[in-house]
Amino acid sequence: MRAYRGGGGGELFEVAEYDLGEPMQFLFVRVVKAQDFPSKDITGSLDPYVEVRVGNYKGVTQHFEKNQSPEWNTVFAFAKERMQSSILDVVVKDKDILKDDFMS
């Protein structure tokens, strides 16, 4: 077992190196921060979060209310053997009541 520190709260999680005797490989994606996002809402507020996708698997950061320079400091681990795609999609969205807006 190897221990990895992830997330903004300093939580510790373990990742097994072997599963039934077979070596396991992971893709680790770290979402750190963004700076000076322009506001897209009529109200001028911005509640950004990030979606990270690899095939059918998705990781989502927390959203920050009224923050144009959020710091997520979040790590996602995707097991290589379960990935159904070699494409990594990273999308930033603005959380809204009716429908979340695409940012970048």
Automatic annotation (TrEMBL):
The species this protein was found in: Solanum pinnatisectum (tansyleaf nightshade)
Pfam families per the UniProt record, alphabetical: C2
Cross-referenced Gene3D superfamilies: C2 domain
InterPro entries xrefs: C2_dom, C2_domain_sf, QUIRKY-like
Protein name listed in UniProt: C2 domain-containing protein
Domain of life: Eukaryota
Residues covered by the C2 domain: 8-104
